[in-house]
Amino acid sequence: MDQKHEDPHVDAATGMPTTGHEWDGIRELNTPLPRWWLGIFYATIVWSIGYWIVYPAWPLLTDTTKGVIGYASRIDIGADMARLKAQRAAQAAGMTDATPAQIKADPTLFQIAMAQGKAAFGDNCAACHGVGGAGARGYPNLNDDDWLWGGSLPAIQQTIRHGIRVAGDNDTRVSQMPAFGRDGVLKREEILAVASHVRELAGLSTEPKADLKLGRKVFADNCAACHGATGKGNQELGAPNLTDAISLYGMDMASLTETIANSRNGVMPAWAGRLDETTIKALTVYVHSLGGGQ
């Protein structure tokens, strides 16, 4: 594309002067901006100067200019948060000395706990358990009545306070399933057989070639001590019920053999110290009320 620089001249068609630039025979008109547009433009410049003077605007080495009126939205946010904290403290005053059971039995405290618990759940728990508590692979569904450690109010409160497998917390929930394959306790065929038996316990279909007789023997020798002879589980040990077809990591053969061979060791944070006791009580009541509380 050719670009020519020539002296400005007046365009015959429009009567407007040109800039002297030409591209492929097309000349660029030198049309002035509308006065109203220029007026607004200059007004914004004046406005910006006034804004710099009146409001905090210019960054300094360690702070910013404060402005004539000293206003900052952070001041309003801080004041709003302080008012909200005071309001919540007044509303939840009755929860301080009440147990979760007493809170749930009191309609006023229960309503406050549900609102506070829902907010706390969304901020701290939903990332793993989902917004509605339905869970995901590796994260328990809090809406059903299948609990590793119990779904009563005291049990839920204990789990929230101290978490699961938290290092340095003597009251944390701890269970340890052996890695039967990785540690060489069971052979490959024994792992496949006991996995088929677990599906049998849950009322699920098994492969025609599955050695269920071997699976039952392996289960009785290695698994029944924690899960029970009939696979009903033991909440005191955190051993899941294997008869309800509900599993954190799946009941298909691939997932079961992986669990048996290498074990699973999920971790949940301990919220004591991170959340105040009133919030933990509200969370306890909220989780218990999701639908799976015992």
From TrEMBL:
Its cofactor is heme c. Binds 2 heme C groups per subunit. Its main location: membrane. Residues 112-202, 210-291 form the Cytochrome c domain. InterPro entries: CcoP_N, CcoP_N_sf, Cyt_c-like_dom, Cyt_c-like_dom_sf, Cyt_C_IC, Cyt_c_oxidase_cbb3_su3, Cytochrome_c_Oxidase_Subunit. It comes from the Bacteria. GO terms for biological process: oxidative phosphorylation; proton transmembrane transport. Component of the cbb3-type cytochrome c oxidase at least composed of FixN, FixO, FixQ and FixP. This is Cbb3-type cytochrome c oxidase subunit.
